[in-house]
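Reminder to self: tokens first, then the designed residues, so the page reads top to bottom the way the pipeline ran.
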């Protein structure tokens, strides 16, 4: 860390307040403002636009350059050369596994893919048309009720087995949500398959006939999980960290992350993109929607565009667009009307001065839904897929926090309510 300092003078407070300035290996320096409370001051930063909430070694994003590194490895290289489970190992352990470590890790994950049979009963309580994200919030949190043997968060072995269980069981639970909505029997995992193949098998296989898994689709599914694996201190990861800071068990923390991801401003955007493309319906109507997105009086925003950090391109979106072309041509759907609308919309938006001036580019959610639709995944399952991939990042950040000294997260506020006043008896109101 550097010995740089920041000096602050505040009207009404004598002298100069000196604060340490800390430097990371990459990215902006940070001003340690923790001493300000002692001076009777808080910082004020709604939405945490300028706030570094923690120190982390897992993921680095340079929004100006469109850079995304997982433990130093560029996302483009991981998407091309790695796979989802290897990336999970990297996020959790900090290094790529050697052949033996990778085999052990994959075996461990694939041996935790089944869920307790009692969990089937949880699904019986959901309406047939329950949103899959509502079901996932419930059943993932409920996992804690099955693993009393490994909820001591101070025990590294308990943290590891809980992390493995969560990464392993998310695809199983996701597929159970889908099967519940279809009224079809749940499919058990087939651990002779890869992680992505197993997910597709549990989603689209039936007891009546073996799964026919297209290798192009399986590879695309694996890369989709990988591209969603982690993304620094986004809203849902910050939620997981905050929940974990109270000492809550990892299953409860991941359930809180799922809940935070659901919103259309975050992981729910992929579902919103498809609904938007369907609403646009025809390339001739794109201009009408771009106009609405620019209208301050219209709450409509172009879903899948913009990002708090990326003010250039989102590197994941570029990889995702390549997968979209591959999958749709493999499925014979290269003329998919929604893909054509998406590509035309992207072109128009990127040439429009509003979007250029506000640095709004397609994000990870813009193309992902088109791929998932082509694979046959229903729109309301898109954010469940996002949550499945992001579980690796959530649990890696949770583990990083719990493995080191931490404090319970407890932000303060700028209070603008009433000053103290006396109770008014009912008869006097
Ligand atoms: C994800 O944080 C992460 O890393 C998230 C994520 C991850 O991997 O975890 O990357 C995943 O959540 C991607 C984002 C998915 N969301 C969407 O696609 C929803 C549409 N996008 C927006 O709602 C918005 O861009 C956000 C929420 C993504 C970012 O919002 P910010 O950073 O708070 O920016 P802002 O709302 O202050 O917008 C800045 C300006 C505003 O105009 P002014 O008030 O300055 O005049 O840009 C405008 C906004 O109105 N704007 C848009 C827009 N996004 C921002 N205008 C039209 N369409 C849009 N999509």
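Designed residues (429 positions):
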């Amino acid at each position: 860390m550097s010995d740089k300092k920041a000096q602050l003078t505040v009207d009404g407070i004598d002298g100069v307040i000196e604060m340490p300035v800390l430097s990371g290996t990459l990215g902006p320096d940070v001003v340690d403002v923790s001493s300000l409370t002692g001076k009777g001051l808080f910082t004020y930063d709604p939405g945490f636009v300028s706030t570094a909430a923690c120190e982390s070694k897992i993921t680095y994003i340079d929004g100006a350059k469109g850079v995304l590194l997982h433990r130093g490895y560029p996302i483009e290289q991981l998407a091309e050369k790695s796979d989802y489970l290897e990336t999970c190992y990297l996020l959790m352990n900090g290094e790529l596994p050697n052949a033996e470590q990778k085999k052990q890790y994959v075996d461990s994950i694939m041996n935790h893919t089944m869920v307790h049979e009692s969990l089937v009963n949880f699904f019986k309580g959901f309406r047939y048309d329950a949103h899959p994200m509502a079901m996932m919030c419930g059943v993932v949190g409920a996992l804690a009720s099955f693993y009393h043997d490994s909820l001591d968060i101070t025990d590294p072995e308990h943290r590891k087995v809980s992390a493995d269980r969560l990464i392993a069981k998310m695809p199983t639970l996701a597929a159970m949500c889908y099967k519940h909505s279809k009224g079809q029997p749940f499919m058990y995992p087939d651990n002779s398959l890869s992680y992505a193949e197993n997910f597709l098998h549990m989603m689209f296989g039936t007891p009546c006939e073996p799964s026919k898994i297209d290798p192009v689709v399986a590879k695309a599914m694996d890369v989709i999980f990988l591209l969603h694996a982690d993304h620094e201190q986004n809203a849902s990861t910050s939620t997981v960290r905050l929940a974990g800071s109270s000492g809550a068990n990892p299953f409860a923390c991941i359930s809180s992350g799922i809940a935070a991801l659901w919103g259309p401003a975050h992981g729910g955007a992929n579902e919103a993109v498809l609904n938007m493309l369907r609403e646009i319906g025809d390339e001739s109507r794109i201009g009408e929607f771009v106009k609405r997105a620019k209208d301050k009086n219209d709450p409509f925003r172009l879903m899948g565009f913009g990002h708090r950090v990326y003010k250039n391109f989102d590197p994941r979106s570029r990889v995702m667009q390549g997968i979209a072309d591959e999958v749709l041509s493999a499925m014979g759907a290269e003329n998919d009307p929604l893909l054509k609308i998406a590509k035309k919309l992207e072109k128009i938006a990127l040439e429009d001065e509003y979007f250029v001036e506000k640095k709004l580019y397609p994000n990870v959610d813009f193309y992902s839904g088109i791929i998932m639709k082509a694979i046959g995944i229903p729109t309301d399952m898109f954010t469940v897929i996002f949550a499945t991939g992001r579980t690796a990042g959530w649990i890696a950040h949770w583990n990083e926090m719990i493995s080191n000294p931490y404090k319970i997260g407890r932000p303060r506020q700028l209070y603008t309510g009433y000053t103290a006043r006396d109770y008014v008896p009912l008869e006097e109101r």
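The chain has three domains: 5-52, 73-211+232-263+383-402, 269-375.
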